[in-house]
Amino acid sequence: MSWSSSATSRSPRTARSWASLEIRAGFGPPLPITPYSVNLANAKELQLTGDTVDADEAARIGLVTRVVPHDQLMAECEKVAKKICLLPQLGVKLTKEAVNRAMEEMGYLNAVRHNLELMTLFDTSTSPEQEEFNAISEAEGLRAALNWRDARFKALD
Hints:
Layout: E1 7-9, H1 14-17, H2 34-37, H3 40-49, H4 55-61, E2 66-68, H5 73-86, H6 89-105, H7 108-124, H8 128-140, H9 142-151
Parallel strand pairs: 1-2
Helix pairs in contact: 8-9
């Protein structure tokens, strides 16, 4: 829980960057931070469907705090960091601590612990889909397995 701010750009890669694990329900463990980053409905939809969002949608639902042109991304991040550095450091430290404690009070640490249990269960369980995914991944590589997994959803796009 150490982040202070996040920015993203409208580069073509941005739409996948926040969900770079490309997890869909049934094909990977849930990500415990999502319900603390977006509202419950968006968290469930993103985690159950594994859908990606573009930069503007990520900002709209609260996954990132701002969207800037790609060539200005580093400058914008540095600007925010410098702004924070100019603040009284005790205030920054205590503010971050207050936010972190609020997250803890909302159950964030319990969510992480429960997620570890779910990840263990997921990693030690199997399904026909997971077996097929693993077989394709081993034979043809991860990209082929991800393409196989996502093929069933193409008709929905």
